[in-house]
Amino acid sequence: MIKITVMNGREEESTLFSEAIVIIGDPKDEREKEAGSETLSLPGIGLKPQHVKITIDGDKVTVQNLANDPFVTLNNLPFYKKEAPQGAILRIRERDLKLERAKEFTSEPAQPKAQEPLPAPLKKPEPQKDRQPEDEILQEEIIRAPKKKLESPPPISDADTYKDDDPLIEEESKNWMAHLNVSPFRHVKLYSLFLMVFFLVLSVVGVEAYLRAGEKSDEDEVKAAESLADIAMALTYAQVYHFAPQKHNWSDPVFIQNNLLATLPTGSSSGTILNCQGDFSGCAYFLRVYTSNDLSRFLIVAHPNPTFLQWLIPKSALVVDSDSMEIRRIRNVKAMNRLLTNLNTLDGINLSQITDLIKNEEVITLSYLAKMAQKPEFQPPRVLAFMRPGAENLIYNAPRYHPFGDALLKKAGNFAQGPLSSHELQMLQSELEILKKFPNLVLYTTHSIEEGKSAVNALKKIGPNERYLLASIKYDPKGRFLSSKIEMDHERKVKPNLFIKESPFVAKAEIFELPNPKVSQEIAYLEAPQKESSLLDTQLKSIADTRVQNIQRLKQKAYQATDDYLDRPRAKRLIGILKKTRQEIQEEEEKAKEAVYEVSLEWEGDFEQFRAALESHGLKGLLDAS
Fold this sequence. Notes:
Elements: E1 2-8, E2 11-17, E3 21-25, E4 37-41, E5 52-57, E6 60-65, E7 72-74, E8 77-78, E9 81-83, E10 88-92, E11 95-101, H1 134-144, H2 158-161, H3 167-180, H4 186-240, H5 253-263, E12 285-291, E13 298-304, H6 308-312, E14 317-321, E15 327-330, H7 333-339, H8 351-359, E16 362-363, H9 366-373, H10 384-387, H11 402-417, H12 422-435, E17 442-445, H13 449-462, E18 469-475, E19 481-489, H14 517-526, H15 531-565, H16 571-602, H17 607-616, H18 620-625
Parallel strand pairs: 3-4, 17-18
Antiparallel strand pairs: 1-2, 1-11, 3-5, 5-6, 6-9, 7-8, 7-10, 10-11, 12-13, 13-14, 14-15, 15-16, 18-19
């Protein structure tokens, strides 16, 4: 026997069921009812005839999600089949149901009430003796009253009627007439003015509240994006080192926190705080994690809570796919929920649809996240956007998670110092094989540059065909992050840019030691002092080529506009296009200036050598202008 209480706002309705099976849904026909079961109907919220099944076996109550509905939760956790504790809250869409195991009570026989004493009988009124009837008394008074002759009032003459009015009465009459001549719309105008002022104040307050709500929504999104990036790196670390949570609960806060600490610098703290229901602390989002059966891929979603503010200002969902490792903003939340309705979605037929949906959405860049969250450790080196387009938005390239790659460099450094055991070498090769899933990975080192180079050389011995990016990190005396800088670049084969026919990012040499005299000569060249200048040439050549191609494209656009509109009477439109094109060219010049400025901040050599390199690439004018 179970007691189910349906809580709809302040109203509660309790129902006692004696059968061992209770079906919750919206049955259309009594024939759909299962034998030996009772039905709790919840119409009007789009449920299936058999949506949720509750089985009672002694003191054990089991709840099963027959419809695989993601909006069905038990104590705010999604499930398919789970044992419900006493007093558990089952949420089906927007309805909350409280499950309680009912106890049978035996009714006690009613005890007879004590007999109350009866009231005393009323006394009968005694008849009055020798009372004279009232009619006779009235008759005697009428006889004794003197008779008077009735006289009619004198008639009113016309002279009295048309006498001159009193001056006071005439003045009062004039005042009444003046009052009657007042416009009846005077009060309506006052009311209208009052309503206009009221609605004006109300609109100002409403706009202010709306703007504040918009700011709060943006703050929540930034906090959710920061937490989502931390969780993605925690799960990536667990994936690389083959860690699995208990009961395959990938949203377990303790599991996420333990793996996240391994990817963050020592002494740093994470703002990611989850409760046992998967809700983010400090922002109106909750976490949903989807994995494949072999745990090779995961999809984490920060879903906005269904609140009044979400209805007023809809927030987007945030998604990180382990195949792309980018934070994307999903505006079409309903379409995403339809694709993620079934369990084990990442192994189903919806996989390609989910991938296409995510790829077509907006990317939240790490530079934007670093600026809005006021955490510069999210910002990769700015030169990375020119050297490897797209790599600046990969989560694992944020300097915040430099221990993720630093641990690999330490193992490679141990391999360079001395031979490893077969087991250690096999583990290192296994980690490198997994790291192939992370293209354009930047390996940050907190030690000396020479140690980092030695570790990269050791990695090249294990994987000669791999290309690596080595970067260094600088901290202030208080241990706070200052900046990061690319120290070594071995370019992969990248896709050509939209406006660049050939990729300008060509590696000068490959750094690895093999019994090849040509390769040894290249290694000696890169270890020489001019190596840093070689990297400078690569960076400046990238900036110069991008600048020339973009400006050439904009000029070609202006020429085309001139040819199309020169013979037409709409000269104003032509002038507008030319002005806009000129402004875009100036913006491209500003971008190139900023890029040169960032490279100059990272340059530690002679300034004249830097100026000569700029002049050789046609960028000296940008330095003089800045």
